[in-house]
Amino acid sequence: MTAAPPPPHDLLDERVRDGLAGIGRGAFQADPFAWQMFDAMAGSRLLDIWARRLRERGLGYYTIGSAGHESNAFVAAALRVDDPALLHYRSGGFFLYRSLQAGRALHDGLRAVLLGMLAAVEDPASGGRHKVWGDASLAVIPQTSTIASHLPRAVGLAFALGRAARLRHPAPWPADAVVVCSFGDASLNHSTAAGALNAAGYTATQGLPLPVLFVCEDNGLGISVPTPAGWVAQAAQRPGIAYFAAEGDDLAGLAVTACDAVEHVRTRRAPAVLHLRTVRYLAHAGSDVETAYRAPADLAADAAHDPLLALAAALGNGPALLARYDAISRRIETIAEEVATARTLGSAEEVVAPLAPRTAARPPAHVADEARREVFGGKLPEEAGAFTLAQSINSTLIDEMAARPGMLVFGEDVARKGGVYGITRGLQQRFRATRVFDTLLDEQTILGLGLGLGLCGMLPVPEIQYLAYLHNAEDQLRGEAASLRFFSHGTYTNPMVVRVAGLAYQRGFGGHFHNDNAVAVLRDIPGLVVAVPARPEDAGPLLRACLDAAEADGQVSVFLEPIALYHERDLYQPGDRGWTADYVPGARAAIGSARVHGDGADLTIATFGNGVRMSLRVADRLAAQGIAARVLDLRWLAPLPVDDLMREAAATGAVLVADETRRSAGVGEGIVTALVEGGFRGRIGRAASVDSFVPLGAAAGHVLLGEDQIEAAARELLAR
Fold it and tell me: Is-contact 682 655, C-beta < 8 A?
């Protein structure tokens, strides 16, 4: 029988060893840089080979490697150790070189990578949750979904460096730092990449500092799909962004070009793209059979551009390099054997521990009434009489910006205009354009700015103009903001409070894009806090709770504001001003705490948002019929206030869930589930909106939850 051919990783190892052995016996350069560069590149190559060997032994879990891309180590060499890096998953050479550059032994970098491959709790990047490039002491920020989703964050971080310096706000990195962000050629086609590059050019064109270096590592393939020749060179060149190009196996040229690109970004504080043409070995990952979609001639052509052998040829003394290469391989095998028995995460509690910590948040520094009075133009809000929901949010934002110097408010139309509904009116005049500013119309960029500002130690409060527009950028919350704490084991966080004008019931205006009740995507994000203020007196306490949690724990929150209630004043009768309330400075509500209205013993109506006003009106009508109902305003959709819900349900023995979101995948499903799983044995009913988009005008009344529907459901439930 014919013996099976060696696996691709062993063939690559053999080819490299043969190549090293064939290099002429020149004098191995004594320059420490050369030794470090070879160690980083050879170490990265061998980690990829050993990742597959470990997987064959049932040990490793990650085989997406850097083989062929190792010359990105020269990009690391052009940067400083304190330049923040958001890295592509093929950044092994970069990571190992930066580790060496920081004065660490090669063993340390190799061990860190192997711990990640084996999902060990000791993994310094993620604590055993994912294989990522990450190390706070090396300014490498873990990225887990690098199909371009990290580019808006990179733009935001570059913007944040300049804004922190201007505000004299302490930042984790030097004021002259450069943000480096690497990604693949296929990722360049993603809308997130297009948006980030557009935002970078847009910002730079306005003369604002944006020191970000985008490194597109172009190996010509997106898994199996070829990138058209010349496409990256065209697509990566954008207005306002300098363009540099280098070949991955022309190491002398790459070294010069990388330094030029970094120098451009650092001195001009302006963005640049470094187009690094590379090759890819060992397919996309261990499970990928490259020969199924690539011709032998193409594979052979790539073999001729091996960056590791190009470095070896430049250094000379092949036998010495081969011996060094083999020594690195043996060292990796030894380390792998040591960490093979390392502890992995042992329980669900341990896995989710970084998601949503709740520490005893300290309120911001007290601002004296005299200073507050000056900020508010001579009259304190608590002296101004009863406020609407909009006025309460506006006054809370002013109060908190006065107390929190690192708090920034931004989004489309929030500055001079003061927001579409006037919620941010007067903020820019009080706190200037450095802290309250308009952005371009791109929700991915708005959230990306928030991600970068939060990483830089500030407290971003971005506004998304309508809930329907958030769906364009959901992954910036799910895959980037909420996941960072989890996949960095709490080392990095994204403190941020995202204000979103949303929900339905705007009369005679907007249709679907201005009346959107789709919040299921928010409740599906682990660790994300979702607050919905309905009444004016709750707006300040809920918003302060979100801001406190952001500063204390790096919490990401969505503050979902019901548009239809912004300027409402009356509750039961025209002119009764039952939907206004006095402003209480400094008031706070605990995250996940509900509020009950009334003490009726017959029925509990559990609701939120617009449902609170409708349910209170229904409860008033039911009272006239001899039915005593209490209304439970949940206030928090994530986490749901389950304890309060169970207490108020037990008080009456009958619960009606009034849910303005849709019947399928709406909030009501979660409320009912919580009641059942909590052991509630009473009667449960549900009234919800129809599974439909929200149409324009009066037609919306046919599909949205209404007061008549709530009343009918209440009577039906009690009649059972």
Answer: yes
Q: How many CB atoms lie within 10 A of CB 586?
A: 16
pTM over the 0.85 mark: yes
- Give the closest residue to 395 by CA, choosing from 385, 406, 405, 380: 380
Show the low-confidence residues of the chain (pLDDT under 70). 1-3, 27-30, 145-146, 508-510
Q: Tell me the C-alpha distance between 434 and 437, whole Å.
A: 7
Give the tens place of pLDDT for each residue, 560-614: 999 999 999 999 999 999 999 999 999 999 999 999 999 999 999 999 999 999 9
- Quick check: bond before 495 cis, omega within 30? no
134-149 tens-digit pLDDT: 999 999 999 886 689 9
Among 553, 538, 519, which residue's Cα sits nearest to residue 588?
A: 538
**DSSP reduced 3-state for 371:** helix
Q: From residue 167, give the alpha-carbon distance in Å to each of 164, 407, 432, 455, 457.
A: 5, 11, 11, 16, 12
Q: Where do we find the tokens 């010495």?
A: 320
- DSSP 3-state of 418: coil
Task: Write down the catalytic residue from 88, 130, 264, 514.
Answer: 514
Q: Is 514 a catalytic residue?
A: yes
- Residue 221: phi and psi, rounded to 5, are -145, 140
Question: What share of the chain has pLDDT > 70, as a percent?
Answer: 98
